[in-house]
Design a protein that fits this description.
By secondary structure, this protein is α/β, with parallel strands linked by helices. Helix content is 26%, strand content 25%. The strands form two sheets. Strands 1-9-10-8-7-2-3-4 form an eight-stranded mixed β-sheet, with helices on both faces. Strands 5-6 form a two-stranded antiparallel ribbon. Helix 6 links the parallel strand 7 and strand 8. The chain is globular, with a radius of gyration of 17 Å.
Length: 221
């Protein structure tokens, strides 16, 4: 049986939903959906249940989406300003089932860093962050017990490192979700997770031009 399934994005069918999403650019927190492909959102709608425990790297509308639909969400954010904004939003909406963690990057200060993609390389290739260490950010999940989460959603900085730290925290039969998974810099992660079945959910998504891929690994065994 092949380890990878590719799901067509049904781009034409999603055009109306995409047009309806454009006004959310005015306030991204008004969007009741994560910023992933529509095909991936439809997959989530079929899979998640109110009993799920979810962790995510990168926060925003997705945090509010999870908080409405699952038992508990842990969100990790690297940007202090955005963390403050969303903290206020969570309080205003009376959200009580979210652990919201701020873990800012630290300068490498000339210290040698492992090449991006190597195990334990807590780095981001996002412009402006190349000389920062995201060790505290990727390691924020360490304080939670193994097999604590039904799903971990990786959509922030240092995604390879975040995904690596998350595998042991996912329940057997749970899911790891990586957005923008078509990027070549995530090849090392795809290789490391090759023993798990992967679904590539490709197509258009909210508030963005063009297509991209959200990938899901089913963590079994």
């Amino acid at each position: 049986m092949p380890r990878v399934s590719v799901v067509d994005g049904r781009t034409v069918a999603h055009i109306g939903r995409w047009l309806a999403s454009l006004p959310d650019f005015l306030n991204l927190l008004d969007a009741d959906e994560p910023w992933i492909t529509f095909t991936a959102i439809e997959w989530l709608e079929r899979v998640i249940t109110p009993e799920f425990r979810v962790a995510e790297f990168g926060s925003g509308a997705s945090t509010l989406y999870w908080a409405k639909r699952v038992a508990h969400v842990v969100a990790v954010e690297h940007h202090a300003g955005w963390h403050s904004k969303l903290t206020d939003e969570l309080k205003e909406r009376g959200v009580s089932n979210c652990d919201y963690i701020l873990a800012e990057p630290k300068p490498l200060n000339g210290q040698p860093a492992k090449p991006y993609g190597e195990f334990g390389a807590f780095r981001s290739l996002k412009k402006g962050y190349e000389d920062q260490s995201f060790e505290a950010y990727a390691s924020a999940i360490d304080s939670y017990d193994d097999a604590s989460f039904d799903l971990v959603f990786v959509d922030g900085r240092a995604r390879v490192a975040c995904a690596e730290r998350s595998i042991s925290k996912i329940k057997r039969g749970g899911y790891l979700v990586l957005d923008n998974a078509e990027r070549e810099r995530y090849d090392p992660l795809r290789e490391r997770l090759s023993q798990y079945r992967r679904i590539d959910l490709t197509g258009i998504g909210p508030r963005q031009f063009g297509t991209w891929t959200t990938s899901v690994w089913h963590i079994t065994g």
